[in-house]
Automatic annotation (TrEMBL):
Residues 200-211 have a biased composition (Low complexity). PANTHER family: SODIUM-DEPENDENT GLUCOSE TRANSPORTER 1. Coiled coil: none annotated. The gene is Mfsd4b. This is MFS4B protein. One of its GO terms (cellular component) is membrane. Keywords: Membrane, Transmembrane, Transmembrane helix.
């Protein structure tokens, strides 16, 4: 019975451990799903600004060209949010911080439709950008903490969700605008009927405010829809916080056990520059390829728009395929493949973009090659050093600086040199810079390990040589001992033969003379003893010779 009780207790303990493992796996998948949903919402909230930009300008009483600073405000807010999020992420629970950031984004989206002051609109955009910066930093680090070395596919899924959100946002805005247009047509018909009845004065009074009301209503619902979605995602983060309040601390403690790379900050700085050029090139090409196609390739507006869609479509599709590719390929392999395709396509675009076929093919390949670099870069550096909140914030800041600085520089240069395809040359230069930077980073990340492995090999070689030398000495000693043993056996055999010969001789002599025994004992190395037990005298041998 005692053995049965022990077996039952062991089975119960094993089932409990399996239950805990299953709960932990389910929690990790819930965290990944919520992160993907949050990145989908961030992509929609960023991309919805484009289709609704004219409405925003109309609400604040400005022209479209006069409120460009809201983009600057959002970018600065994203930079600040990335920095603050990196610090806060190391001080508080990750899911709670992301829940508050999503809640702030939803609140900003709810307020934006009723904003009628340009300064207030800029402040709101900065707040929304800060919340997005916190999410961008914390989401990547939380995925790393949750999955560790298996985070590659999940990081790809996060950034694919962002691209999918950016793809869906214009559709959401277009559906709202389409419904408003139908309502405007119905309102116009009613107004025309009232014109026939009440005259021109009433028609002017009734028809003037109607378009603005419908426009504000459509604008309101597009932002309210995305804000409500993000609010629901924030509730999921609060639920995860209640379920796993200590998950982040445990993950962080396990991450701190890993030793930082020998050149940690130098490696982080190089990746900062790498992301700056990569994201800057991505945003620059996506922003200016439309204008380049119309000016240098002499395309129509519809063709140029289709070319822009090809670039972003290939970008999104490749990010979706990278989710499965990351399960088969290492992050370094994916980065190398992307950089080679980027270098080849940018070279073709820089020198052959005036050919339409080259422009179409190059844009598709260039968009696909840019899709996986950012998430693969984060997954790659996590293999060599600890990625904390502050480290991830530097990566996001580098990407944001590239997004701000490189397009501005390209726009300025393109305005100064009208006949030079600055966009394509920028794509070529940035591709070459990233192609040169990654081997340097890879060498720097692996060099201490190679050096340590070389030292270990040298120590093992020395140990092997010492062991072989000791074995050789032991073998020599054993050989000497064997020779001495053989010599001892030969001496013993000679003594036995001598003793036997002497015994035979003594037996052949008639009579047992007492004097014979001392001579035999001397020959055998024993002290001479006479028959009476006393030591023999020296003249014993003389008496024996005389008797002969």
């Amino acid at each position: 019975p005692a053995e049965e009780d022990a077996e039952a207790a062991a089975a119960a303990g094993g089932g409990w451990r399996c239950g805990r493992c299953a709960d932990g796996a389910a929690l990790r998948w819930c965290i990944s799903g919520t992160l993907c949903a949050s990145f989908l919402g961030v992509g929609m909230s960023i991309a919805v600004l484009g289709p609704t930009f004219p409405t925003l300008a109309a609400n604040v009483g400005k022209n479209v060209s006069d409120i460009y600073y809201i983009f600057v405000g959002r970018s600065l807010g994203s930079l600040g949010g990335s920095v603050v999020g990196g610090v806060l992420f190391d001080c508080m629970n990750a899911t709670l911080l992301l829940a508050f950031s999503m809640l702030g984004t939803a609140a900003g989206l709810y307020v934006v439709p009723w904003c009628n002051q340009s300064l207030l609109l800029t402040i709101l955009m900065s707040v929304i950008g800060g919340s997005m910066g916190i999410l961008d930093t914390g989401g990547n680090v939380l995925a790393l903490y949750t999955w560790g070395s298996e985070a590659g596919p999940h990081l790809q899924a996060l950034h694919f969700s962002f691209a999918a959100g950016a793809f869906l946002a214009p559709m959401v805005a277009q559906m709202d605008l389409g419904s408003s247009e139908s309502e405007e047509l119905a309102g116009a018909e009613k107004t025309n009927q009232s014109v026939l009845k009440s005259g021109p004065t009433a028609s002017a009074a009734s028809s003037t405010p109607a378009p603005n009301d419908h426009r504000n209503e459509s604008f309101l619902w597009s932002y309210i829809f995305i804000g409500t979605y993000i609010l629901l995602v924030s509730i999921f983060f609060f639920v995860l916080f209640s379920k796993s309040s200590s998950a982040k601390d445990k993950s962080k403690a396990s991450a701190q056990k890993d030793k930082l790379a020998k050149y940690h900050w130098l490696l982080v700085g190089l990746l900062f520059v790498f992301f700056l050029f990569y994201v800057g090139a991505e945003v620059t090409y996506g922003s200016y390829v439309y204008t380049h196609a119309m000016v240098f390739a002499e395309m129509k507006e519809s063709e140029a728009a289709a070319l822009n869609s090809v670039f972003w479509g290939a970008f999104a599709m490749c990010r979706g395929a990278a989710i499965f590719g990351a399960t088969l390929l290492s992050p370094a392999t994916m980065i190398v493949m992307s950089l080679l395709c980027s270098a080849a396509s940018s070279t073709g675009l820089a020198f052959f973009s005036h050919f339409r076929a080259a422009l179409w093919a190059g844009s598709a390949v260039y968009g696909a090659s840019m899709a996986t670099i950012f998430p693969s870069g984060i997954a790659w550096i996590e293999q060599y050093t600890v990625v904390e909140g502050k480290t991830a914030s530097l990566f996001v800041v580098g990407a944001a600086l590239g997004e701000m600085c490189i397009p501005v520089a390209v726009g300025y240069l393109q305005g100064r040199f009208h006949h030079v395809p600055v966009v394509m040359y920028t794509a070529f230069v940035t591709s070459m810079v990233t192609v040169l930077l990654f081997p340097a980073m890879y060498k720097l990340a692996n060099w201490p390990q190679q050096r340590d492995s070389q030292e270990v090999n040298d120590r093992e070689t020395r140990k092997t040589l010492l062991l072989n030398s000791r074995l050789t000495e032991d073998e020599e000693e054993e050989e000497h001992m064997r020779e001495w043993n053989d010599a001892d056996f030969e001496v013993v055999e000679m003594n036995d033969e001598l003793k036997n010969s002497l015994m035979d001789t003594s037996q052949r002599i008639p009579g047992d003379s007492p004097a014979v025994q001392p001579h035999l004992d001397n020959a055998l190395g024993d002290p001479p003893v006479v028959a009476d037990g006393s030591p023999g005298r020296q003249n014993g041998s003389i008496d024996w010779e005389k008797s002969e």
